[in-house]
Hints:
Number of strands: 17
Order of helices and strands: EEEHEEEHEEEHEHEHEHEHEHEHEHE
Low-confidence stretches: none
Structural class: alpha/beta
Amino acid sequence: xxxxxxxxxxxxxxxxxxxxxxxxxxxxxxxxxxxxxxxxxxxxxxxxxxxxxxxxxxxxxxxxxxxxxxxxxxxxxxxxxxxxxxxxxxxxxxxxxxxxxxxxxxxxxxxxxxxxxxxxxxxxxxxxxxxxxxxxxxxxxxxxxxxxxxxxxxxxxxxxxxxxxxxxxxxxxxxxxxxxxxxxxxxxxxxxxxxxxxxxxxxxxxxxxxxxxxxxxxxxxxxxxxxxxxxxxxxxxxxxxxxxxxxxxxxxxxxxxxxxxxxxxxxxxxxxxxxxxxxxxxxxxxxxxxxxxxxxxxxxxxxxxxxxxxxxxxxxxxxxxxxxxxxxxxxxxxxxxxxxxxxxxxxxxxxxxxxxxxx
Length: 359
């Protein structure tokens, strides 16, 4: 089979220097595994961390990719619920399934948790013509959801659903702030909040604001402005006046981190919640603690999610209530170009996909 492989790191982000399409042996299923033929894979920022060799040094040689969708072509003898011909998508959260955390429904807290395609290997990830995964790490794609949409959703809808529903207990009618709404996880955050009939204020760079409202956001704010938070506060006052409630944000959805952290805290109502899954602008955020203890603020962390949460998100995609936002599609041979675009982020809205020849 063909796969996108690298044998060394690129700390200078020169991906064309290390990424090559190579021939690898076709996988054979272990008793608990399924093998599916890749139709579509999707990029995530952890692919860049892997190629840099930091902050986590991945195993070499390496095949990246944590999101994959395709058709099952073989199953192991112990596989019970997946059969040849099923359309499936990966669930990249690999855990032991037997510890206290896993058996209590908190598999995202498993001490042996790894992210498939990022921390696994060598040469075990989504950018390959044939994928092998344990049965528990694949789920069926609902009717009406394409391979492209499923791959684009795999990790990001899981993360967004876990943040808003699993961790923050989103409630209908809340005023919700979605930071970085033009990203894959942000685009799903907007749609999940609207599914819950919330008033949604989303932020992005100025060239993406119209796309945020087209996706369902009630208001779109340029977070590149120094005083972006003042605009959000004014909007929250407008919303509160219509509702007859106090102004402010009930729930803030963050993955930006350092540069916008403290200003988010100033916008929260008393007893409000900020849920964070990342820090793309840096982790060393300034925090004015008065906005936490005095207002009784809930600060929640989130990473990945459960397979059940992935299936809940996919269910609503199958009902046409949530959709993937796809920025662009590249071939295996264009992998370096695709990752460079993701790194730069200029003009990017939604997910970048990668496909093998003939898919």
